UniProtKB/TrEMBL annotation:
Keywords for this protein: DNA-binding, Transcription, Transcription regulation
Protein name: FadR/GntR family transcriptional regulator
Gene3D superfamilies assigned to the protein according to its UniProt record, in alphabetical order: GntR ligand-binding domain-like (1.20.120.530), Winged helix-like DNA-binding domain superfamily/Winged helix DNA-binding domain (1.10.10.10)
Family matches, as PANTHER family: REGULATORY PROTEIN GNTR HTH (PTHR43537:SF47), TRANSCRIPTIONAL REGULATOR, GNTR FAMILY (PTHR43537)
Domain annotation HTH gntR-type: ranges: 9-77
Entry-linked InterPro entries: GntR_C (IPR011711), TF_FadR/GntR_C (IPR008920), Tscrpt_reg_HTH_GntR (IPR000524), WH-like_DNA-bd_sf (IPR036388), WH_DNA-bd_sf (IPR036390)
Length: 226
């Protein structure tokens, strides 16, 4: 959609808004490379400098990562997610595991009490997809499928604030799992989440919370004792 305005600052704001919408709507998902600068100029009908200014602004806010010689990539879906990505990217893996354990355990406990039939159907579908991704041997596919499953557990808590916070941390948590797994999916790293889903289905809040709390630390077994 072509944009136009007599004021440069207003036009730049319009471009920033349009690019942000592409990110938040999922049109440009996290990890994807956005169109090149000439392509954006043609799509938006604005000057190259305006596009460059908008891209730099979103990179400064943490939504985009400009990689020289490669392109510009989406790294977060909101400014808060971008801040979290920058703040926690180099954190101790155990601290990330503790944060994930706390959030997911609380979410699983709530999910066991509040889940709907629709939530359970979604969990069943995503659990099957997670297993298929593991069987494929594709580590990146598994990271994506695992993230989708755990996000669905949090959604089933029906706590909007917890769900938004978890979504904003999503990139950090996926990167943590990606770093832990490496390029190869090894049998000793496989974790069956069936008991978690069944506990949520049965309304067993204590078991659901305990199952969810343990998964991050199982991933860290190769690091030895804390």
């Amino acid at each position: 959609m072509a944009l136009g305005s007599p004021r440069r600052s207003g036009l730049s704001d319009q471009v920033i808004t349009e690019l942000r919408n592409q990110i938040t709507s999922g049109e440009w998902p996290v990890g994807s490379r956005i169109p090149t600068e000439p392509e954006l100029v043609a799509q938006l009908g604005v000057a190259r400098n305006t596009v460059r200014e908008a891209v730099r602004a979103l990179a400064h806010n943490g939504l985009l990562d400009i990689r020289q010689g490669s392109g510009t990539y989406v790294v977060a879906t909101s400014e808060l997610a971008g801040v979290m990505h920058r703040r926690f990217a180099a954190s101790d893996p155990r601290h990330i595991a503790e944060l994930r354990s706390t959030l997911e355990s609380s979410a699983a406990r709530l999910a066991a009490r509040r889940r709907t039939e629709r939530d359970l159907k979604q969990l069943d579908v995503l659990l099957a997809g997670r297993e298929e991704a593991w069987a494929s041997g594709d580590a990146e596919r598994f990271v994506t499928a695992d993230g989708a499953f755990h996000h669905a557990v949090v959604v089933a808590s029906h706590n909007d604030v917890l769900t938004e916070l978890y979504a904003d941390l999503g990139h950090v948590l996926r990167q943590w799992l990606r770093d832990d797994l490496g390029q190869d999916l090894r049998p000793e790293h496989h974790m069956d989440h069936t008991r978690l889903v069944e506990a949520i289905r049965d309304g067993d809040a204590d078991t659901a919370a305990a199952e969810a709390a343990g998964y991050p630390f199982m991933c860290l077994r190769d690091l030895g004792p804390a």
